[in-house]
Structure prediction request, 235 residues.
Amino acid sequence: MADFDQELDASGLNCPLPILRAKKTLTPMETGQILHIIATDPGSVKDFEAFSRQTGNELMESKEEGGKFHFLIKKA
Amino acid sequence: MQEKKLAIIATKGSLDWAYPPFILASTASALGYDTEIFFTFYGLQLLKKNLSLEVTPLGNPGMPMPMNMDKWFPVMLTALPGMQSMMTTMMKKKMADKGVASLEELRELCQEAEVRLIACQMTVDLFDMNPGDFIDGIEYAGAARFFEFAGESDICLYI
Prediction:
């Protein structure tokens, strides 16, 4: 897993909380900074893809590891 | 990319009908939509400071119940005293167990995300509601005000 500037653990939270928390965490971050999100909600995979397309914040990585989903999002 | 607009009319005041407007509005907001919810009729219940919303299987044949009760439990029995409270408690517990956000939390997230919450003035007058019972940060307006935004919206939902 590449380096990241901030981490958000959204384990145990279901739709739409992972997206909402991500948006809240990303807002004060600087352009180019990377947010690492951990989630257990299987729906979050498609949600983050849509989030990335819609908001322009690049989804750099999306994978499943150790039963959890990991995402790397770069702030636009 | 021009900002999209979402307009929602919330007309229902039970627990099951309360989730869709707040979930859709908060998610849309997270995706960059400019969002406004117009609460009218029973939707005003969703703006109360103390949310005490209930849900009942009575009249809701589509509501799933534990132990397949929705298949065999007589509808008339769901009208018995205490049934509504029990069903509401069970529903809330299920939501908590599954990590679903509470309505208060979703509503707060909406306000933080600058979703505009508008209370129908006419309904407030009609049911003699006390504005002191509602949360802060809401606007009171009529249908015409809602159309100003709804007319420009990309998505308009009636809930």
